[in-house]
């Protein structure tokens, strides 16, 4: 008789079919209610803020089609953004480039998530946070959920709100600083963005602690630099 050994890295082998409400309902059975999901957008760009959202869904009125924002089209994200805001309790917060440079992208992201939770009009009993870290300073219990935007509907909703809010901020930023094309790439390191930096240098929205902007050539602690997805 053969025996199988559980893999030592379960997330490498686990198939996630899409977010559901099981984490939230489990918390409710444990007496933790309401539950908020929180997520951020914009860890990787060379410019602009990192934006976080916190969302408390109404279990009787959960929008259809919630998913990791990266799995949705721009049009569908925009549609769901409006639906989420009209049916749920939502709060948005951001950490600007200066804050990112003063600390690091991880700390700035977690602080934006904390402030988004604090901005909710109803205080949650539990916060489900996307990733491996619970934002410090929450007013309630917190739980880190790896790949949370693909596992929890509340986190998926927060990922959509954060992504759309940040994209809209970068469109407005493009009107103030038209040389960089922020409306097209949202501050990520596209070829056009790099060429604009070579020509015009950085503007006040650029993260000077990120490569290739960092003057000493060293990588900032926890630099989450990435190309435009």
From TrEMBL:
Subcellular location: Cytoplasm
Catalytic activity: Endonucleolytic cleavage to 5'-phosphomonoester
Regions that span the bilayer: none
Broad EC category: hydrolase
Region (Disordered) location: 208-229
Cofactor binding summary note: Manganese or magnesium. Binds 1 divalent metal ion per monomer in the absence of substrate. May bind a second metal ion after substrate binding.
Keyword terms: Cytoplasm, Endonuclease, Hydrolase, Manganese, Metal-binding, Nuclease
Biased composition (Acidic residues): 218-229
PROSITE patterns to which the protein is assigned, alphabetical: RNASE_H_2
Enzyme Commission number(s) of this protein: 3.1.26.4
Residues noted as binding a divalent metal cation in the record, renumbered to the chain: 39-40, 130
Domain of life: Bacteria
Pfam families (UniProt xref): RNase_HII
Cofactor(s) needed for function: Mg(2+); Mn(2+)
InterPro entries per record: RNase_HII (IPR022898), RNase_HII/HIII (IPR001352), RNase_HII/HIII_dom (IPR024567), RNaseH-like_sf (IPR012337), RNaseH_sf (IPR036397)
Subcellular location, principal: cytoplasm
Residue ranges occupied by any RNase H type-2 domain in the UniProt entry: 33-222
Gene Ontology terms for molecular function: RNA-DNA hybrid ribonuclease activity
Family listed: Belongs to the RNase HII family.
Free-text function comment from the UniProt entry: Endonuclease that specifically degrades the RNA of RNA-DNA hybrids.
NCBIfam families, A to Z: PRK00015.1-3
Protein name: Ribonuclease HII
Phylogenetic classification of the source organism: Bacteria, Pseudomonadati, Pseudomonadota, Alphaproteobacteria, Hyphomicrobiales
Gene (UniProt): rnhB
